[in-house]
Amino acid sequence: MKKLFYLFLLIHFASFSQQESDIEKLLLKKLPNVLGNMADQTPFGAGIRSLIGNKKSQLENTIVNLWIKYSKAFEYKDYEMLSNYFSFPVVFDALNEPEKIINKMQLIEKYKIIREVNIQEDYKYSILNKYNFIQLSDDFVILDAHYSRYNSKYKKIFFGRGLYSYKRVNTKWKLFEINSF
Questions:
Q1: Nearest CA among 51, 138, 136 for reference residue 163
Q2: What phi and psi, each to the nearest 5 degrees, are found at residue 120?
Q3: CA 162, 109, 171: angle at the middle one, nearest 5?
Q4: Domain extents for the chain?
Q5: What is the pLDDT of residues 112-131, one digit of tens each?
């Protein structure tokens, strides 16, 4: 009887340890999605991704990081830096009312109007919420970006979406078309 009792306890604890293992597996399965989204918002995103095992292509990481840097230049009104992310000519809103920008000065003037006149009141910063990375060829990719804008009180004031088209220019990736929704 004593042996039967110990056998029962052994089976009982073994089954609980299996349940914990299943829970751990579920958590580990979901954790990369949660941490992966957070990783996209940090300068250490690639390091976080390698730790959680949700590796993205080097090109995808490059494009997402370029978009985040572009967004920061927009946030800080750094128009010179902002212009470095583009290849000319640039097309804005090709799907709606296309506008062709042929040089750096035109681009800077457009962004001054967007950032200083047309922006939501008390705009402070933007965050990339989610994105879809679409690689159409070795030299052409699209980042379908969903982002939120926040004010100085850290309250969401706008949610937007844009298709950001990048092309390889020599060895660098440059924006050449932006469509906002």
A1: 136
A2: -60, 150
A3: 60
A4: 2-52, 58-180
A5: 999 999 999 999 999 999 99
135: three-class secondary structure by DSSP: strand
8 A C-beta contact, residue 43 and residue 82: no
- The two structure tokens encoding residue 20: 């914990």
In sequence order, the β-bridge partners of residue 127 are 148
In angstroms, rounded to a whole number, what is the distance separating the alpha carbons of residues 15 and 12?
5
Amino acid at 173: W
For residue 101, count other CB atoms closer than 10 A to its CB.
21
CB atoms within 10 A of CB 51: 12
Q: Tens digit of pLDDT for each residue in 41-73?
A: 554 444 444 444 455 799 999 999 999 999 999
Q: Is 52 exposed, middle or buried (0-12, 13-18, 19+ CB in 10 A)?
A: middle
67-76 burial by CB neighbour count: b if 16+ within 10 A, else e? Answer: bbebbebbee
Kindly give, in sequence order, each residue whose CB lies less than 8 Å from that of residue 179, ignoring residues fewer than 6 positions away.
92, 93, 94, 95, 96, 162, 163, 165
Q: CATH: 3.40.50.970, 3.10.450.50, 3.30.230.10, 3.40.30.50. Which one for 58-180?
A: 3.10.450.50
